[in-house]
From TrEMBL:
PANTHER family: 2-HYDROXYACID DEHYDROGENASE HOMOLOG 1-RELATED. This is 2-hydroxyacid dehydrogenase. Belongs to the D-isomer specific 2-hydroxyacid dehydrogenase family. Gene3D superfamilies: NAD(P)-binding Rossmann-like Domain. GO terms for molecular function: D-lactate dehydrogenase (NAD+) activity; NAD binding. The keyword Transport does not apply.
Amino acid sequence: MDILAFGVQNDEQPMIERAFAGRHTVRCVDVFLNRDTAPIAADHEIISVSVNAQLDAAVLRTLAAGGTRMIAQRATGFNNIDLEVAAELGMTVARVSHYSPYSVAEFAWTLAMAVNRRVVRAATRTRDFDFRLDGLMGRDLHGRTAGVIGTGKIGECFARIAHGFGMKLLGWDIAENPACTELGMEYRENLPELLAEADLVSLHVPLLPATEHLLDRHGLSVMKDDAILVNTSRGGLVDTGALIEQLKAGRFTGVGLDVYEAEAGLFYLDKSLDVVTDDTLARLMTFSNVLVTSHQAYYTRDATAQIIETTVGNIDDYLTGRTSENVLVPAAGRAAG
């Protein structure tokens, strides 16, 4: 079977090629799937895509017209896929339901510590042989309160690290995680209560209609003036415009963002020589207490290997008629031939 993989990073291409070797032929391309690139998939029954693929109705129809019957997404989130249209077109859609939660949780803490201790500013200074400490003062996290929004596998890992720092734990989720309560986590039924109490807030929930702009103007306004906010989940969980308003008012010790609600078409691409047309992102970058990274929290060798292995398994399942928890839209029958 010939498989086309979109949005493949240089680091992961040899891992993908090794995983498929002797089983299927895979062609890796670095372009992301969108309305302009969808025709490339013509005559490929199976394609694999990255998290920043655009799989709206128009793209899905183009894929279906070209013979694509199965989409294997190399990510957990699927807010970028119109599942209803995929089902109408008889396309099978699968994702990676889970991979190393440590990769994301550890990176969330990397962002938290970086903004708290002004690491980027310090590193920039010392490269210029400026060794002053002015403006670099952070604070101990020991004894302070961590608010974990979403206490699934990743949220639990984040909480365990917070517990290691000696922090008080607050949680918010639709269901309590017994492993977190064993750590001493206290759940808050109302999100504003958690936001008002926490010194550090980290987001670990999926992006769904019910969670879009979970941190809106009101949610951000009830947070402590010197709080730290970290988002390694999905950009749409935070109202970026409202966040900028709060930052302009001089609030928050630091904000670490690995995701951005309008990241499609920007993240994973080199835009260094282009004119910046996203005024919101450009304004966000001007704040010295904000650190933005390019959706890389998952990007460890361990997690990437698990993602690729699961993707290969999803494709094998499709070809043999099996199903699993990874299937978002079940098979509607193989294409003839």
